[in-house]
Design goal:
Order of helices and strands: HHHHHHHHHHH
Helix content: over 70%
Radius of gyration: 35 Å
Number of helices: 11
Number of strands: 0
Number of domains: 2
Shape: elongated
Strand content: under 5%
Distance between the termini: 107 Å
Largest sheet: none
Structural class: mainly alpha
Amino acid sequence: MASSSRSSRAISNGRSPTPPWDGWVTLVATLAAAGVPPFSTFWSKDTILSKALAINSGLGAAVVVAVTVIGAMAVVRIFCLVYTGATARRRRFEPERIRDAGGRVAFAMVLFAIPSVVAGIRGIRGRTDPIAFVTFPHVPLANSHLAAASIIAVAALLGTGVAWLIYGRRLAVPGLQPANAILGEGVYLGDAYGIAAARGLLPAATAIGWTDERLIDGAGELVADSVAYGGRPRRWLPDLPLRPLAIAVLAGAFLLAVLTVVLAGRLFGTTG
């Protein structure tokens, strides 16, 4: 009776009435997928990070750590949506669909967790490196060292903790109000495109419009006015005598030819 009443209250509160064993095993699977030791075999990321540290690639190390944090947040978000009632509150009340979604996610995570947990616990002692094909230029193959493994473990714990505060505990941070639209709804492509269009493309379009109006159009008008001014007939040309004008043109052409010959001789005369 107590169990059924708890299940009824869970359904009414929007939570999936899953057994405790299912929830705990799924939590272990979530930690394994997030890369939290000792539940996970995180050789791939810390092997890559060890190579990046060996060649002093700050950008490569930052990318690996960022991927670890974001990946941990993603899997913890899935766990929170299934087991903390967020799915029911976001959508209309359908207990059967929520229960079915919880079962599907739990089964998939359990299947993923079993080899991860076994390989993670077994590999800590020997630190075997099953993906030695990941190489960097001029860096010999070597097992992952302790510094890279520690950084990856801390990054996974950081991502797990941040995601639990955001999606599990619903922690409100006033300083992160501009990011609430992304963190609250999760990393959905449609919402991400909408936010990018509203926050990025519209201001960029305004800036491009101002640039086009003030700079490009202004420069075009200046060039057009200059060409039009240059094409107008000058009143002082007919006033000049034809003979002095012809002599000046010929003298200028002769002087230009002489300068061209002299410069060409200095530039190309020594190459022969």
